[in-house]
Design brief:
- With 234 residues, the protein is an alpha+beta fold.
- The chain is built from seven helices and twelve strands.
- The protein has a domain of 122 residues: Beta Barrel (OB fold (Dihydrolipoamide Acetyltransferase, E2P)), CATH 2.40.50.90.
- This is Thermonuclease family protein.
- InterPro entries: SNase_OB-fold_sf.
Length: 234
């Protein structure tokens, strides 16, 4: 027998073995189907609607109402407003509950304080000893303000602050301020010796009088005499 004949014979035998295996598999499946009963299809419409796990539990929770357990013990009792009695609040558990916030010092509690080495930050505001004080009754000239006199423009804001610093010369001011240091600027009347600081600033044209201030006449005098910001560059 030649080599081609042996190959054809081997292929034929392999095909027969494969066919026999398929027949055995089919026969085994038939035997299993005979031994296990097939359940009859259900005609309940609700079973067709359960398309995800857990749907049966959720559906049961929707259908079954909640039970009331010891309702008389859990429900709040009915109260008659005429039987309610108002009593005094209990005392605090410790003395810390009796603490009150510190009293804010009022203007009548303020006192004159010497503020040393003042430095002007504008024409009517200075800083000294951790305080920022605005001279009350006057309006400061902004640092970037410019003034004109006979068609000449000059930086009167910077000049006003320089004039205030030059007049102070580091001398202590006596100001009426609250006893405690405040981080915010506070408006207060001040004097240098016997000279009222606000009156000096307005009369020399280095600050303006507020409408409600007491230096209105001093401002008119400064304008008439062309002092400070109302006059030529200085």
């Amino acid at each position: 027998m030649g080599r081609p004949s042996r190959i054809r014979l081997a292929v034929a035998l392999a095909g027969l073995e494969l066919l026999a295996g398929l027949l055995l598999i089919i026969q085994g499946g038939a035997l299993l189907s005979v031994d296990r009963p097939v359940p009859a299809p259900s005609h309940d419409i609700r079973s067709k609607q359960l398309t995800r796990p857990g749907a049966t539990v959720l559906d049961a929770q929707r259908r079954v109402p909640a039970r009331k357990i010891v309702q008389d013990l859990i429900a709040p009792p009915q109260l008659d407003s005429s039987e309610i009695e108002r009593i005094e609040p209990r005392p605090p558990l410790s003395e810390l509950g009796l603490a009150v916030p510190p009293k804010t010092p009022m203007p009548q509690d303020w006192g004159e304080v010497l503020l040393y080495a003042p430095i002007a930050s504008s024409s009517a505001i200075f800083e000294s000893m951790g305080r920022t004080v605005v001279i009350s009754g006057v309006q400061s000239i902004d640092m970037d303000k410019t003034c004109s006199f006979v068609d000449v423009v000059w930086p009167c804001g910077q000049r006003a602050r320089a004039a205030f610093n030059s007049w102070l010369r580091g001398r202590a001011l006596n100001c009426l301020v609250p006893p405690e240091v405040d981080r915010f600027a506070i408006a207060a009347p001040c004097r240098l010796g016997r000279q009222d600081v606000g009156a000096w600033l307005v009369s020399n044209g280095w600050a303006l009088s507020l409408p409600s201030g007491i230096y209105g006449k001093a401002e008119v005098t400064a304008m008439d005499t062309e002092m400070g910001i109302f006059g030529p560059p200085r």
